[in-house]
User: Fold this.
Amino acid sequence: MTAALRKVWQGVANPAARLAVATSGGADSAMLAAHAAALARERGTELILFHVHHGLQTAADGWADHVQGLGRILGIPVATAHAQVDATTGLGIEAAARDARYASLAELARQHDVQHILLAHHQNDQAETVLLRLLRGTGPDGMAAMAPTMQRDGITYHRPWLNLSRTSILQSAHAFAEQHDWHAVQDPTNADPRYTRAAVRELLSPVLDARWPGWQARLASHARHAAETSAILEEVAQNDLATLDLSPDGKSFSLAQWRGLPSARQSLVLRHWLRLNGARMPTEARMADLLRQLRQLHSLGHDRQMQVAHAQHVIHCQRGRVRIEPRNEA
Assistant:
């Protein structure tokens, strides 16, 4: 467990820089905090725990206090942020809570001069993500699931435990509880099948465990292979986008030149362009509709003005240019 964390320290440009662990109070993030604390002391790194209070559970105040208690045991300061979850975005409560959590983590990072945050996602989480993306419909980049390292809002997030089974984490949590009399909190939504990820965990996982033991490791391995394939496709998409008379701000390209690409590469470069502009990756059905509309447009775009709302963005075409803008600015 600590070996995977050492790789994070090796990848940070300044190992003495302040790092944070996103800590909910659950077993996974608590054990990540405990192991990171030991390594931070060894390396002379300043560590801080970030806790996001979503306010979605009546027990949330107690969880915040519980994380404070963990910080005292580990000798690490804790910073808490209260997230504002907007359930009216149409994204669903799970996605809305995730966006609010990352926004709160970014704000905490700015307040405490932190550029690197550790996340406790593990092999089981990765396998669930692969399954969910398969069921929702996704491209090769989506099948790569969660990346070991990602950039968001100017912060570098690290997931050192993506290849680690949750069984070993729970064993560590049990030993920690016996030593310190500190027990991880249990979020009831994690076992509530009304929530999509919990439905996979509670209803589907037991069936897979019985029929295909160790399936999580195989799906996590599949995600790593998909990530390698995705990296190659990313290079192809970058090269294609450079041929589309891309605007200096990266927000528009030539429809006529895009239409000159082979069909598969049209889709590939469009996904790449959306990602560069911070847009959500569309489902297969949404992408098919967007491709259909773009392919049916007159090459100069004079016959009609296409305008497609996609999550928090709007994609439109005018005078032969395909452009993306935030919805409130379009």
In short: The chain has a mean pLDDT of 89.
